[in-house]
Amino acid sequence: xxxxxxxxxxxxxxxxxxxxxxxxxxxxxxxxxxxxxxxxxxxxxxxxxxxxxxxxxxxxxxxxxxxxxxxxxxxxxxxxxxxxxxxxxxxxxxxxxxxxxxxxxxxxxxxxxxxxxxxxxxxxxxxxxxxxxxxxxxxxxxxxxxxxxxxxxxxxxxxxxxxxxxxxxxxxxxxxxxxxxxxxxxxxxxxxxxxxxxxxxxxxxxxxxxxxxxxxxxxxxxxxxxxxxxxxxxxxxxxxxxxxxxxxxxxxxxxxxxxxxxxxxxxxxxxxxxxxxxxxxxxxxxxxxxxxxxxxxxxxxxxxxxxxxxxxxxxxxxxxxxxxxxxxxxxxxxxxxxxxxxxxxxxxxxxxxxxxxxxxxxxxxxxxxxxxxxxxxxxxxxxxxxxxxxxxxxxxxxxxxxxxxxxxxxxxxxxxxxxxxxxxxxxxxxxxxxxxxxxxxxxxxxxxxxxxxxxxxxxxxxxxxxxxxxxxxxxxxxxxxxxxxxxxxx
RNA sequence: GGUCGAAUGGCCGAGUGGCUAGGCAAAGCUCUGCAAAAGCUUCUACAGCGGUUCGAAUCCGCUUUCGACCUCCA
Length: 490
What we know:
Strand order of the largest sheet: 4-3-9-10
Helix content: 40-55%
Oligomer: single chain
CATH architecture of the largest domain: 3-Layer(aba) Sandwich
Structural class: alpha/beta
């Protein structure tokens, strides 16, 4: 088993990953709220945690990955009178609330498929676990850490913090939170029902305008934002599991509250390792609706957004994300994306080259050393940029081998092939781009390339160059190689 | 205002005390009828000012700039 070290937000250090019950690993990821099309901010989490998922499996763990779908309980905006976010959208579109949730769940799955992200073991929906959430709330009340007020149930943060470190995960001090820090006072609905402004809702009373509501011991309502993750992680992974992941924006209050709820219910901190990926910016600015720079995933792949110079493929996006470490911010720009696009194609081209290497009686390159460096990079808190740097070292060596500047034995060659494919395809989850050429076009272009070869053979360079120039003008680039000509469509 | 984090070469982005990633771009070379593609080579940076040290991008302090979060709200 590889010694994987990961950064734990809870302890704020990098430590060796040790599962509770080897070889089993339980992971819970906070999934999307399905009320809109996935945008660029939604892709990073799935991609970085996919590498974690794939790597754990590769080094021999049996992983259960749970990623929820949030389809209840979120509000449209502050001006809204507490109407469920999904219900609001449903009314506008004249659709059933669950139809809206399903529509955007499908869109999310489509994105994951395009990015070649492995499916979750279990993908529970909040709306399908109302009973579990109610039971958990009842236990928390029975344990004395929550109270009912006017049909809603709130978590008693002050009481909890007497015996527990509320704020440890997100690095907050409750006294500071209570003080309010002097910023503008936010108008939160139901604030007067709370014993303390820091208390958060476990269950919220629903008015008649709520299309999505359920009956409960406290009347009709819907679950609070945080309780679904606590209830579903407990159900499928147990009161205590290995890794809980999500975006840094969820640190507070979401994950902090999860810890408080779960601890108040089960007397255990739910997760041993808390992992958080950083956020995405574009051209140095944060993505925000007000800046009109939020890019939908579909727009990104189609290239039809004002900030995009061209379309980028899912694999380019994935490779681009993995070229940065997951705990740093990541800036989108056309220049950076095009750099990633070219780098990726070089990485994939080397895989093709590797297939044509002829073995020798001796190796002049150190295959074990090259591959061990790749493992070491991932073991150091999933450092994919370092891994990719080492893969490019391998690329250079592959090209040396192809040029005859280095030699390799058959045994080492096999090891190199297997290792390279393991890292590129199995662990990073990259794949060759699907060719979207239709067979008619392919046949026509190949015919023109054949004619060009013939013209060149006859020293009719005027004709051969004419074919090249006209194809280039159509966006078809000719690449002459030793083995003949190929082309790509730009 | 508070808390946390970040500032690296033309661009992106690793690196936590000496051995100074990687990708893209650029330049040179190889290949080639020419060009492109592909491959090889080259390109020594760490926001500013102090300090610690034999030695700092890396540790400490201050300054500047930027980002995330600050409770039902993506």
